[in-house]
Amino acid sequence: MNLELIILVAVAVFVISRLYAVLGQRTGAEPPRRSAATTARTVEADVEEATERPRLRPAFSGPAAAGLEDIANIDRGFDPEEFIGGARRAYEMIVSAFAEGDHAALKGLVDDDVYEAYSSAIEDREKAGAEPLRLVKLRAARIVEASSEADFARIQVSFEADLSDGEHLRSAREIWTFKRPARSKDPNWVLDEVVAAT
């Protein structure tokens, strides 16, 4: 056998053994090896934790922020934007039902006190033969106050609208208070009070 070949083989064996000694040994600083099953379980646990973690929502702002927080703490599905959309529709329906003298429609949208006041006003209007005010345009609706007291949640909404009796255009600015049982599964709110906005 060629002496040079023997020397090259010996050098190669020495270099390989030294590399293995340095690179192939565990020093204790490496993370423990995980099997595929352990890795799969860890991924599943991470997904479950992310699913269970509550979604963060932005904090409420404005004059009604504290009351809206109280309502949202009781009703996790409460959304002020959805509420104000529903309040706008309720305003249009109630003003229309009042103008048409539709007692049945009003009954399901307002509480007993408001219903009695509206029914009386409809009867007086009909006796006088006066034209009702009809909604021309709802210009603005915004939440101005909110609270959750005892068993009820209440939200005050400022409405600005143009109304007409067929001849004259009138601007209306009112604050409507909507209420519903705080822990009710029924998402519908009823009109509890109407006052003129200052």
Question: How would you sum up this structure in a few lines?
Answer:
With 198 residues, the protein is an alpha+beta fold. The chain has a domain at 66-196: Roll (Nuclear Transport Factor 2, Chain: A). The chain is 46% helix and 25% strand.
Into which percentage range does the β-strand content fall?
A: 15-25%
Strand count, sense and closure of the main sheet?
A: 4 strands, antiparallel
What multimeric state do the chains show? single chain
Number of alpha- plus pi-helical segments: 6
CATH topology of the domain at 66-196: Nuclear Transport Factor 2, Chain: A
Helix content: 40-55%
What is the CATH architecture term of the domain at 66-196? Roll
Residue windows where pLDDT falls under 50 for at least 5 positions: none
Q: Report Rg.
A: 36 Å
SSE layout and pairing:
Elements: H1 3-23, H2 36-52, H3 65-74, H4 80-100, H5 103-107, H6 112-128, E1 134-149, E2 152-164, E3 169-181, E4 190-196
Can you describe this structure?
The protein is built from six helices and four strands, in the order H-H-H-H-H-H-E-E-E-E. It has 198 residues and is an alpha+beta fold. The protein has a domain at 66-196: Nuclear Transport Factor 2, Chain: A, CATH 3.10.450.240. A hairpin with a 4-residue loop joins strand 2 and strand 3. The termini are far apart.
Notable characteristics:
about 200 residues, alpha+beta, Nuclear Transport Factor 2, Chain: A, 4-stranded antiparallel beta sheet, 6 helices, 4 strands, rod-shaped
